[in-house]
Amino acid sequence: MKASSSQSNAELCPKNSPFRVVIAYEDNVTNSTAMRTCDHVVRQLGSDVDVKKSVWSIDVLSTPGLKIKAAEQAAEADMIIIAAHRQSPHSEQFRSWVDLWSGRRNNDSGALVALLDGQMEEENKDLSLYAYMEGAARENQMEFFGRAT
To answer: CA nearest 111: which of 12, 35, 10, 25?
Structure first.
């Protein structure tokens, strides 16, 4: 994700406003994938951009108070990265968390990055976590970047 030539990094992230990233991940493998993606984006933004990163595991997002705090951060984030397994036993927890921040989002821009591994069964394509996140991005007028491995 690189700024277009007509848009400088300073325009993307005003000096007094950090670039806010929220990461939600399922396990150590998906955390590693999310962190590499985030690091890549940060390098693209350049050293003159202040980045504020919040990282949440799905286990922590199962705790109501922490889930709300993470949703509040996501509602204000410039980029949200969700890293999970396609056939995750935590799909409903991720969906519930997405619904929570989606209802609070007042930021009219931003990006949702879905990093999902594993094969998607064709008959479940419309109900997949990937499709759900893509719809959430559309509803919140966010750019959607998805990758399935």
So the answer is: 12
* pTM (2 d.p.): 0.83
Inter-CA distances, 51 with 38, 116, 132, Å: 10, 24, 27
CA atoms in the 13 A half-sphere facing the CB of 113: 22
Burial 42-77 (b: 16+ CB within 10 A, else e): eeebeeebebebebbbbeebeeeeebeebbebbbeb
16 CB contacts (<8 Å, ≥6 apart)?
none
Helix axes of 91-102 and 64-76: crossing angle, nearest 10 degrees: 50
Residue pLDDT, tens place only, 1-54: 433 333 444 444 555 689 999 999 999 999 999 999 999 999 998 988 999 999
Across the chain, mean pLDDT equals 83
